[in-house]
Specification:
With 353 residues, the chain is of the alpha+beta class. Helices cover 37% and strands 30% of the residues. Strands 1, 2, 3, 4, 5, 6, 7 and 15 form an eight-stranded mixed β-sheet that branches. It has a seven-stranded mixed β-sheet with strand order 9-10-11-12-13-8-14. Helix 2 packs antiparallel against helix 7 and helix 5 crosses helix 9. 41% of the residues are buried. InterPro entries: Acyl_CoA_acyltransferase, BioF2-like_GNAT_dom, PEP-CTERM_FemAB-rel, PG_Glycine_Bridge_Synth. Pfam families: Acetyltransf_6 (PF13480). This is BioF2-like acetyltransferase domain-containing protein.
Length: 353
Amino acid sequence: MRAVAVERTESTTVRIMELTPQDITRWDAFVDACPGATFFHRAGWKEIIERAFGHSTYFLMAENGDSIEGVLPLARLRSRLFGDALISLPFAVYGGIAASTEQAADALDKAAQVLAERLGVGHLEYRHCKPMHPDWPTKDLYVTFRGRIAPDSQANMAAIPRKQRAMVRKGMRAGLQSRFDDDNERFFQAYSYSVHQLGTPVFARRYFDLLRETFGRSCDVLTVSHGERLVASVLSFYFRDEVLPFYGGGTALAREFAGNDFMYWQLMESARERGYRFFDFGRSKRGAGSYHFKKHWGFEPQPLHYECRLIRATALPDNSPMNPKYRLFIALWRRLPLPVVNALGPYIVRNLG
């Protein structure tokens, strides 16, 4: 284990260390107990980001004596096309510093900025739920949606606005069925078809296999079908008392049968039966189709504070698919055959964390 930095006061000494395999159990125990930590602070993301995308990671933890008082998972995304950034955490909704003491949070913050300077990245980015550096430039692009799951099924159904509730019942009347899959085969079919229709690059199948391999029972796949025909599928994470449907997609049948509405209702019901109390619908870009879909479900958008400190860059890169300069690329991407985009997509999306 290598000490990155030491922060001293009159009464305590906080050491900033890099995560090693021997620390994983302690790291995850801290994350489970820390109110400010999320599923995306779990140690398993280090191996996933390294193996699935080949990026360098810097998972920092603040120690005081034998106790962990804070964690900060970081990964560097370096690309000629999309810039060079040190992010907590790419491919995640949340991240940034999770700490139980102010001293640990300050020490991690200082260590990250020193690391960003040493690496010479374009910018350092924290994905916090609450502001930490209001004076830093921000990416005001995403919001998140999160709501309670009532212990009563009828109460949850009644909480869905009338028009969207009708869509859930449309799927029920159509005879849709849901099942948790043991592998990612049907999920990847639905997901890759869906993102192709949106004109965005697809993640590699290997990435999703690594998620399930690494997180075990904290990650599963619910798939909806109509008879033998695939309709929709969603890969979800479970953390403490919440379920996070994170990657999902539907085939052409999803619109015909209201498959996505039925799918999320089935997921909510399954989570309720297992005692989960919160449904985290994840982030969406302001004004995007998924943004309006989640609002129609009765979820209110909550701001995400993606704060950035410029290091070598003079301005933040805009790699959003909503950027007008990508309009032609998206139009061309939609026209490519699905096997082609499934082969090429992972090489592009690995740098779009």
